[in-house]
User: Fold this.
Amino acid sequence: MFEGFARKVIDTGEVSINCVVGGDGPPVLLLHGNPQNLVMWANVAPLLAKHFTVVCADLRGFGDSSKPVPLSDYSNYGFRVMASDQIAVMERLGFSRFHVVGHDRGARTAHRMALDRPEVVLSAALLDIAPTYTMYSSVDLNTAQGFWMWFFLARPAPLPERMIGADPDFFNESLMGSLGGPGLKGFDKEQLDDYRRCWRDPDMIRSVCSDYRAAITIDFAMDQADFGKKKIQCPVLAFWGEDGAPARFFDVGETWRPWCESLTAATLPSGHFFIDYMPEDTAKVLLDFLPR
Assistant:
């Protein structure tokens, strides 16, 4: 995977971020979601690298990036901190401004990055999420069932860590297979094997839970404070799977409109993990959106 890309570990001063870099042209940062790692971009990044310098990075706590012990308030796993990590990575690679594409947790990181540091984000593509503020402020019977993992993973330690750790493959594969599209059979075997390698790590299990604990507390509070007061200034692509959970419960494009000065919407006929299922189609939508 990632033939022709250089593998790097960037020391930000607080954590080490694992990444791969390839291509030539304007810089684009690709951020994965849960329970994956940067390998999710393995079949998309080479297509983008024909036109862009592409950086695929593991978020802190995921993949082969550092997995620090969570602070008592989980603030070191909030999206603001995750965004700062990735800005530091891009700065150390020589990019003071760049495009960012994120899926799932990576998209929430990109959202916070674009709000906090508008001077560095040229454009933001937010894949298969509704805003964190909308998710938590719109909970009802249906959304609670559809997004049950948000509340399970945020339970106090060590309950979810112990339960997931007993059989991490069963937990994560059950989750991935239930979010629309062709399920597990739609994943590339080599990519799926690398996801398994990483999510079996007890430190990643702890980090994932810390991420969701931060989301339900400090991240929601930040988004609540910013809602109606701050907007993303750069062009934004809201891009989702028609069979994914966000589309089943929300008008995804409309949930992003209050957050964006300039919004484009796109969909694919697939589930939450459409990047894995439909990499060529995903790359085409991104190439149509990304300025160059």
The first strand starts at residue 6 and ends at 11. The chain has one domain: 6-289. The longest helix spans residues 202-226.
